[in-house]
């Protein structure tokens, strides 16, 4: 991970979800270093307790992507897709943005297939990205 090490004693599930909410708030307020440190700890705790959830994986991957750690972000997005394929279509779109060619196109299409009617703007953006892919990488 990034080398930041914060030690938290073992927390129960409600504490972990509360900490996850705190990490999300840090992410949304662009306090990326603090969010990254907290997500690293939450991910470790989640692995130890078997409580890794799609929101944790997707948000942690978003922080990693925002801080330039694209390789680890890809791994977490892929883990989320493998473990929770139908939840959170935006992970497909986020992963597609850091992939290229046919892989990116397949991810956009998968994200579109999992999207809900309330995600119309994300679907429109995905179709636009697909069109750009076909005009550049896939033509």
Structure description:
The protein is mainly α and 139 residues long. The protein has two domains: 1-88, Serine Threonine Protein Phosphatase 5, Tetratricopeptide repeat (Alpha Horseshoe); 91-139. 72% of the residues lie in helices and 0% in strands. The protein contains seven helices and no strands. It has helices at residues 13-28, 32-49, 54-66, 70-83, 90-97, 101-114, 120-136. Helix 4 (70-83) runs antiparallel to helix 5 (90-97), helix 5 (90-97) packs antiparallel against helix 6 (101-114) and helix 6 packs antiparallel against helix 7 (120-136). The radius of gyration is 16 Å and the shape is elongated.
Main sheet characteristics: none
Q: What is the second-level CATH architecture of the largest domain?
A: Alpha Horseshoe
Q: How helical, in percent, are the residues?
A: over 70%
Question: How many structurally independent domains?
Answer: 2
Strand content bin: under 5%
* CATH hierarchy, class of the largest domain: Mainly Alpha
Distance between the termini: 37 Å
Radius of gyration: 16 Å
Count of runs of 4 or more consecutive helical residues = 7
Low-confidence stretches: 1-10
**SSE topology string:** HHHHHHH
The overall pLDDT average reads 89
**What does the overall shape look like?**
elongated
Number of strands: 0
Q: Which structural class do you get from the secondary structure elements? A: mainly alpha
CATH fold name of the largest domain: Serine Threonine Protein Phosphatase 5, Tetratricopeptide repeat
